[in-house]
Design a protein that fits this description.
Elements lengths: L9 E4 L6 E4 L6 E3 L5 E6 L2 E7 L15 E4 L2 E13 L2 E10 L4 E7 L2 E7 L17 E4 L2 E20 L9 E7 L5 E5 L6 E7 L12 H7 L2 E4 L6 E4 L6 E3 L6 E3 L10 E2 L14 E4 L2 E14 L7 E10 L3 E8 L2 E7 L5 E2 L5 E4 L2 E20 L8 E9 L2 E7 L4 E9 L1 H7 L6 H4 L13 H27 L28
Antiparallel strand pairs: 1-2, 3-4, 3-12, 4-5, 6-7, 7-8, 7-12, 8-9, 9-10, 10-15, 11-12, 12-13, 13-14, 14-15, 16-17, 18-19, 18-28, 19-20, 21-22, 22-23, 22-28, 23-24, 24-25, 25-31, 26-27, 27-28, 28-29, 29-30, 30-31
Length: about 500
Amino acid sequence: MAETGPQRAYRAACPGCGAPVEFRSAQSAYAVCSFCRSTVVRSGDTLSRIGKMAEVFDDHSPLQLMAGGRWEGRAFTLVGRLQYRGETGPWTEWNAVFDDGTSGILGEDNGSYVFCMPDGMGRDVPPAPSLRVGANTAVQGRPYNVTSNEQVTLLSAQGELPKLPPLGQPFAMVELRSPSGEVLSIDYGTSPPLVTRGREARLDELQMSGLREDAAKEERARQFACPNCGAPVEVALDTSKSITCRSCHSIIDLSSGLGGELRHAEQAAPVEPAIALGSLGQLQGVQWQVVGFQHRVGHEPGDDEEFGWGEYLLYNRKRGFIFLVDSEEGWSVVKPTTGAPALSGGEQSATYLGNKYALKYSYEASTTYVAGEFYWPVERGQKTFNRDFAKGDTLLSMERTPKEVTWSSGSRIASDAVAKAFKLEDKAGLLKRDSGPTGGSGIGCGTIIVMFVIILILLLVIKACVDDESSGGSGFASGGSARSGGGSFGGYSSGGGHK
């Protein structure tokens, strides 16, 4: 709980049922009655009922109403919750009221959290269609990249709220991210549009209290029957939006909660991950659990040659999610970024948090197999356009779809360290990826391509010599180069935005 309560509060009877409805902030204009779910609007000292709110679905978040914390030295209390659904899945935003009555937003962001405060753009807010995904713009003299522009709807709400978009009616929400790690959100569900600015926030940094520790433990054993084969499926992760059946390997959508419709998609023969789901490992001084795995393939535009890699989704209750990536170039540990790196004019380099990274690869990627649980609604066949950048052992990866741009950052890790972390020393040979760009032991894909090019050049030279002898002229042959490595440094398919 916050150390002290808000300085101003107003309480009155719900116009629908007579139960008490309290406003802790003078900035809050709406509330949802916890008894009859009436949507109440406040005008001065008068409360009016304007409708009834849909039931809140249980997203199994550790956050809950009346949980408290501190942000930049000020105590706050979570007094309201808004649940949205976008084109890439649902997410939640919490109304955080400070002791002086002002409000902020604690929202979900790629498996972690971002704390935002109301802000402005220093100019009129542009119409949503003019903010094209991938475009650069300046806000109050600072550079930003448009990373998401999609239509969203309000699904449900709870508690005390400073805003309330029309229930079930689509509206635009745009996100811009900066090279300094900031995220700026424009909510077109209100008039004028609401602009907020924030940065990443860890729960331990927020010094949260009153979390759903006990409730989360009770929910860890949630079970249901697979909608495809009927086998029991157990959900171990509080925030899972999708899961795979271990019997038939179908992907099951959990984004509407276990009480909602469980859609599923069948998959072909499974890919066996080198690290088993559920394994515990100590990386970067933190214990992580492997909760998900996806196999992906990529190819350069205009090239039919494919390369593959695996991505393990790791979870820690206080740190959120990271990815352990197994590519032909080695292992890496990466995490979604809150901000968006700045690309150079020719997109040959990217700058983030003061560091400049050089472009290594550009390629198209798709997901071919998934297993386990994920915090976004993962789909087999998801396609993205990727760019990988590097500065020594430090890595950046960009993924772009028509609706969003997502970034992740991290660094390389030795295969021996991976084997030691997950107690797989007996399988160290299978994890070996440190022998160079062509991957582990044996002849890699890059080596085969180089050999093929050399043979082709020799054949062309021989043919040219034969033609030269027969025609009496002079001829020459030239060869090209091929990409010898593959794999993403840490690209992933996420919900993006605040999803």
